[in-house]
Structure formats: structure tokens, C-alpha cells
Amino acid sequence: VPQVPEAKNHAPTTADPAFWRKLIAKGDYWFRVSSDSMAPTLLPGDQVLVQTLAHPAARGDVVVFVHEGKLVVHRCLGAARFRGDAKIVPDPPIAAENMVGLATRARRGDR
Questions:
Q1: Share of the chain above pLDDT 70, in %
Q2: What residues have CB less than 8 Å from 92, skipping those under 6 apart?
């Protein structure tokens, strides 16, 4: 899993979606899942390959976005609404500027 590179004059934080978009635009970047909100699809410790979101998220897409200062991996329900597969209640609407990218692949362990 690649490490976040040091950035001159910029302290990267997960609360900065523009930083993450620039990082994934440079090539493949794997994010580690840290919660069970997407279970059973994604479990803590799984990794998702995140690529540039070239279009608005569509229903069913799994995307990475920043919410309340954290990176979140959730499924799009449509119309800027998202929810973890294990959740009942959807997230509040997420602004386009908080989108980081599209999760295109996942791996668990050595797979």
C-alpha cells in the first residue's frame, strides 16, 4: 500500500479532498477500509483501488469522499446520496467538492 507522500508547504489531512484527488490523479492508489459500514462487501482492513471520478457518481457506484473530516467509502444511492451497505440510514447529502474518487477494485488479505 503506497504511503502518502510528503507535500511541501502542505500538511496533508484526510479533511482535504483536493489533496486526495491530486494524489489519485497521479496513478493507482489503494485506500484501506477502517470500518464495517460497507460490510459484508468491504470489511475493516480491506483495500479499495480509488481512481479519478470522471463523472458524477451513479447509483450503485462505490465512492470515496470526505465527511466530517474523515475519508468514507460508501455506495451511491443516486442524487448525491450515499450509504454504507451495512447502514440503514443514508448519509446526509455530500457536496461534489467533497468527492475524492471512484472505488474500482477491492482486495482482502493477499487477494
A1: 86
A2: none
* Rg, the chain, Cα only: 13
Q: Please list, in sequence order, all residues whose beta carbon lies within 8 angstroms of the beta carbon of residue 82, skipping any fewer than 6 positions away.
A: 57, 63, 65, 72, 74, 75, 76, 90, 91, 94
| Residue 87 CB-density burial (10 A; 0-12 exposed, 13-18 middle, 19+ buried) | middle
CA distances from 32 to 8, 45, 54, 87 (A): 24, 6, 22, 19
Torsion from C-alpha of 38, 43, 48, 52, nearest 10 degrees: 20
Instruction: Supply the pLDDT for residue 14.
Output: 62
- pTM for this prediction: 0.82
